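#onboarding

Welcome to the new folks! Below is a worked example of what a typical request in this channel looks like: someone posts a single protein sequence, and someone else replies with the predicted structure as tokens. Don't worry about understanding the tokens yet, we'll cover that in week two.

Example request:
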Amino acid sequence: MARLADYFVVVGYDLDKRGGSEGQGHILQRFPEKDWEDNPFPQGIELFCQPNGWQLVPERERPSFFVSVLTDINSERHYCACFTFWEGLDNPQLQKAEASEVDEDEVPGLVQPAQVFAPKSLVLVSRLDHTEVFRNCLGLIYTVHVDSLSVPLETVIGNLLTCVIPVAGGSQRTITLGAGDRQVIQTPINDSLPVSGSSVAHLFRQLGIVNVLYLFCAALTEHKILFLSSSYQRLTDACRALLAIMFPLKYSFTYVPILPGKLLEVLSTPTPFIIGVNSFFRSETQELLDVIIADLDGGTVTIPECVHISLLPDPLLQQTQTALSMVLDPELEIADHAFPPSSTQPSTLKIQDKEIRAVFLWLFGQLFHGYRWCLHIIRIHPEPVIRFHKAAFLGQRALTEDDFLMKVLDGMAFAGFISERGPPYRPTDLFDDLIANQVERIRQEECSPHKVMNHIKELAEQLFKNENPYPAVAMHKVQRPAESPGHNDPKNLAIFPPLDDVTVQLFIDHAAAKLKTAPPVVKAELRGMVPSGPPLGDIVDRHGHVLANSARRLEVVRNCITYIFDNKMLEAKKLMPAVLRALKGRAARVCLTQELNQHVLQNRAVLDDQQFDYIVRMMNCTLQDCSHMDEHGIAAVLLPLVTAFCRKLGAGITQFAYSCVQEHMVWTNMQFWEAMFYSDVQNHIRALYLEVDEGEQPTPSHGQQESGPAAGGQELLGALELASEQSRLWPTLNKEQQSERVQKEESTVFSQAIHYANRMSYLLLPLDTSKNRLLNRSGIGDVESVSNSYVTNSIAGSMAESYDTESGFEDAESSDVANSVVRFINRFVDKVCNESGVTNEHLKALHTMIPDIVQMHIETLDAVHRESKRLPPIQKPKLLRPILLAGEELVMDGMRVHLISDGREEATGAMGGPPLLPAEGAIFLTTYRLIFKGTPNDPLVGEQVVTRSFPIASLTKEKRISVSLSMDQFIQEGLQLRSCTFQLLKIAFDEEVASDLAEVFRKHMHKLRYPQHVQGTFAFTVGQSGKTLVEHKTKDKNQSIKTLSKNLVKSAKRTIGRQYVTRKKYSPPTWENRSSQQSELDEDEVSVSEEMDQGSLTLSSTIRSSDRQTMSNVVERACCRDYQRLGLGTLSNSLTRSKNEPFRISTVNRMYTVCRSYPGLLIVPQSIPDSTIQRISRCYRQNRFPVVCWRNSRTKAVLLRSAGLHAKGVVGFFKSPNAPSAGPSQADSTSLEQEKYMQAIISSMPSYSEPSGRNTLSGFTSTHMSISDSSDKLRQPKIGALMKQVMGGKEDIPGTFSRGALGQRARVISLSQPRVSGKARNPPGGKWGSIRGSGRLSAYNPEVGNRLSSKESPQPNGGPSEALFLRQQRAYLYIIGDKTQLKGGKQDSFQQWEVVPIEVCDVRQVKNSFKKLMKACVPSSATSEPSMTFHRCLEESEWMCLLHRVLQVSVLVVELLDTGSSVMVSLEDGWDVTTQVVSLVQLLSDPYYRTLDGFRLLVEKEWLSFGHRFSHRGAQTLASQSSGFTPVFLQFLDCVHQIHLQFPMEFEFSQYYLKFLAYHYVSNRFRTFLLDSDYERIELGVLYEEKGERKNPQVCKSVWDYIDRLNKKTPIFFNYMFSPEDEEVLRPYSFISNLKVWDFYTEETLSEGPSYDWELVQRGRQERLAEEVPDKPDTTTPKSQRHIVWPCYDSRSRVVPDAITKLLQDLQSLEAELGLPPEKWKDTWDKIKANQRGEAKLENRPSFNSSLLMSSNLSHQRRSQGVYLPESGVGSSINLSMDCEASTTSTPVAGRPSTSTLYSQFQSTESENRSFEGILYKKGALLKPWKPRWFVLDKTKHQLRYYETRKDKDCKGVIELAEVESVIPATPTMGAPKHIEEKAFFDLKTTKRVYNFCAQDSPNTQLWMDSIQSCLSDA
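Example response:
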């Protein structure tokens, strides 16, 4: 029984405390005045009566009523029913004004009303929630007062306060307050079910189904919820409804249905809440960031962005929504029916309310079914103690991943649910019944909504019955105030009178006395056993989530275990990989534990070593892959097993399995141990009471549900049932029996605690106690071999919470390990013992025991550890030795590691193909490379060898990782090494590798990667045994003189041996032409140089003393030869000749004083003196002033390069470019000189310097009109469009260039206005043909060029000529500059140069882009995220955009040069982007650079001589480590690769050549790409080393030498499709859609490692062949010749070679078989090409067989669209011959210059070129006959060439005159032509060999000898 009302309070407006606008309320009277003992008076009622604040109003308002809820300190809810009405009073403002003359508050002009109304509230405080009863009672009191009824108010209130009603039980009680009223109160049958009236239905009406579901999930997952409404009662109802649908969970956080405005700061509390606030305060709620706001009036729910609500798991959410809509909107279902039923009205609100609640009850039934099977009862007496095993519950339900359920189970509400509903003996309610008896029904019906509806209606009925146990009774009679006409007249209303408290108190006391005498009411409480419902296991099986493993897999697991215990080890070994794969599924794990259980007898199973090993591996695997939750199930069952399986190590020493499975994080997870402990305690307590009840047979428990729930059929007595029975009997026992039971239970718990302390020490103390790693935060330890197994220790899977922070110990002493383990066990023991009520004495005893237990265990472990070390190691695969290069040495011998698969799927077998990774082998660190060599773990591919390596210099990132190996299920320390050669080594050190060794490995690696000085790199240290690096000590003075003299002697030696050599052009032997027959390998050259002493070699001293020497060396450099080829200047003695040249070679930088990073010789305008240059250079960054690097042989336009200007020079430079006089505006003299410099360049151009203004282009028109390729014309963009695009103009329409604005092969020059030529006088509309002749040699007469260039004087003061006016805005010189630097330069209409501002990508962009590119091409781990796919990552790297930008600028420059304007590229510091653009421009414009020789020259000239900072950009030394790796050169090579793809027939070198350079420019194998400039190379003495020193002929110092050598042996670098077009200017497409990802980034060959170290690959192949041969001939079975080619394993180009390579290989092997001396492949190829041409000539029509690859008659348009064969060229040539209108009209070209003669774009005339020619007989190589050949002596090129016949254009060979030492008469030798006189013979002696010649007769011989002699002396 309970009081209906505890307190009655009258609250009024407080007139005394009126502060400002806000009034206050105060309690006028309260009854009773003393607090009840059981229920103190709640504070702050006055706030809740007027939640919006106490205010006076000018007009009387209607009385209002609402119920607030207050929660007291004991979480008891008090319902405060407030009835508020308004009473008139005279305006206090007016009274105040009279009292004080001046009032600050008053606003003048506002008329104050004479009377105002103040609120007054009557409040009932109760613990019962009977809203309607309260409304009636307070209404009655008000009516008595207003209508002045005869009943005294005191009587009514006294009766109200003394009214007592039952709380529950479904009784009816009639009450009256003594004013002629009567009310019937119905109490609910069961007070555990909430009472909701119709509030739930109203809530759904206001907000809708989805919104309420959001709120429901938010409340359960502990979010903050705020209701807004303008009605207080609705707020209370909504909050009540939300709590009602949460049943059976109870909300335990802040719950305030009506929050007063003064307390709004409560909303910023960090804890969850459900609060209601009046809409009046809406604006204050706007800035709450994490609160879900439900607006009841507007029907919206606002969820902030930062809040994520976990929703119900999927099928349930759908089913709930369906059921709700069927309740709320039954018409929806039949809305589309043709014959809808006559009426389907939804139920009345009261019924609907219960139906909605029934839906939620049904939902909880589904969510929580089976929860009782996961309860652990750990004490029964004196009070039941119960724990819920969350992991088991989620694991069995297969909902471990479900966010919603996880949060609910972790929440406070669920904890309350367990403590309330856990006890097995208590009253039950509707929910218990649902869980126990209706789960089966729910499961069967869940798919049919109508059956669900029926079930819900049944539940709703029960809920309704609970609230309304009796049919409605119409006995209510409550007076309401009369509505008389004068009722609202203020005069009539009296003030609510003060009540007589004595009278009221008398009533109360009287009632209390009566209660005392009344007999106590005994309510029979129906307690009973709570049924558990069906066990969980069956349910899960039906859903089939867990049965992913097929029966076949379980069979495999069973068989394997049987084999192991039957000692059939071979069989077991075969099955092992399959078993380990199967164990990824839960069913297989459960199966494993059940099988193992059967082999345990009396808690022990002794195995031999091998068996032990396998069992441990399986256990590790089982523990490894579990998810964090599920683990507990499996780990729990394995726990007894790991202490059962063991092996004997020696006398009395046994090793248990636990010592090998310690490393899984589950053992450090406190919750796991608790759950296990409780589970075991429950079993023991159950056993305890089973013994007590003798009649019961002991049966296996279901408490340990993990091992398979108890079968539902048999009636087993579970722990909960037992507990319930015991609780029932408890009151019947006497005191002794009770205390005996309590004691027994306590000792059971205590003994279990000791048992667990032991178990925990087993699993937490590592075998080698000197290394503490398990409880370390990192979770990674140093692992030493524990057993002889693969397995041993491993730290695994789920990073559940490991130990607390205190335990991160670094120093490993055994005491430390012991301490941390002791602390961990102590924490555990404290927690479980407190929870399970162990006495303090026992707890203390435990604390003293634990250290002893741990210490004992450590001692036994030491013995085991000692013994286990003696075990013979298990056979591991033997380590394979890598093949090393000559001079490469091992720094660290192989360490056993596992190579783990990374994000590339090919090797793992994911794409089909064998799983090559993970593989086991060793990692080797050499002076040059990091090499992994091993064999795959998968036994199916175990015979293959896997190699992965990269140069140590290319390492870009190294990070430590921890790896779990899928085979062996343990975690290893590992490294992830990333290389910029697009390789990734992810290795895990084997347990046999000591961790300090791994550390040593890392240190060595770092030392090798970043040497102190560049001389520490492999290219320098190679071959120096002992690997000692040269120390750079400063030595005494004499030393440097010694060094110097040595150098001088060396250089002298080099020079003396050659007769007649003067300072003319000299080509070193490296530069021999590729096809010459005489070029034997370098081995037989004679060395004249010594190893340079690397002492303190200061540059200045070297050069000063031997200036001439250096100069002659500089002349030999590649750039000089190139300048001469281009006709840009010579260093000849006859200075007169060079005067009329527009350019000269300047030696101003020969000491590298002007610009450190430039070469010694530079091309500058003839008219500029050296002094000016020194001044100009200061304006440019790094002093890199503009120099000429290339000249167009046709238009004579030049390409210049420089760095960007220093900021200060820019504006001055471009102010008034055409004013020759130094006006006051140009104070800065340097800018004048700069201008002169520019002018000098412009005047060098023929188009500028001709007075007649004849444009050079006009000279070509007639010859080039023959073919006008119309398709080209369409595609040719205006240069303007190109410019716009490069400069990033926004206004252009994409359409203008999207169809190929950078047209691929667009060759029609369309100027904005065609130029008018002086000679032809064409009308301005003249049509321009293709610049290129139709496959013929350009018919341009070279003399014109010479004539133009030899113009003596340019026009005085460089004034504009006639041509300039006709040019219409085409400048003579374009300066490509950086947008950011070119601010403020103004353009002039007469200006002769123009600036093209472009945006360049800076180095940082390239660096970051490259990092992302590497991650895209070689991801470190596989990912399925859509945002991480290869193409997405590639796009995000923006690498393609950067290529596009560089190509785009280059094409623009090519276009400008081709139309006769010179271009100066002046970007950044002039050594990154500038170099890229300048090199690409030359490559595109000049076919020479597309040959092997030319490309080498281009790289040597533009990249090496002009100082691209290779060492700095490649981060090759310690100093540049911080700058990081920036692949500027790689970007250039990628651009070349893109062009190569678009023009496969224009390049002599293959794609492989580019990859080779890309690999070796970072590999540091050669010295070529080391250091940042020529200056640094000279300083180190690297620059002028002649061919690798003879000491070690294998070691090439230069990559070019290496390529040359290799190219003679094999056609690997040669492109068979090479068939160049004359004078062809390439214009590639540069759109991103036209660019391809270079396969260099993505391909790999695991069989042999990178193929760029050719010797290694060859030797590896020979070894492999040698291994395959010795098999004894197997005659029985025919051996298949077929070979499976695996991607990423085999080298496809080798296994499936292209046809030409194959034929050349066959030819070689045939020659070898026949014993013929092998012919060089190049000779064979050239012969075939010559024959081919011969045939074509005879047929006199283009042949359509494969010769098309070599003939060049097709218009290039077609050729480039034909077949393109990557890497190796052969394939059908059908597309090539599709459309040859060009070739059919023009006569085919008879022959063409071969590669080696593509030298001269500048050739003057044939006669000048061939200074002497005729037939000579030449003796062939050894055993070859004499043959007549047509010899040509060429002065200009300084060579003696020979051809088969006079007409032949194809040169058979070249003798460089620079190498000739002497010409002497000779005698005939064997096999010489018979009829020729003796004197006709002469010998030509070169540095390499002696050539024997004979002419027709002796005078002829004399002529030849004299000519050669004169050539030599001229030089």
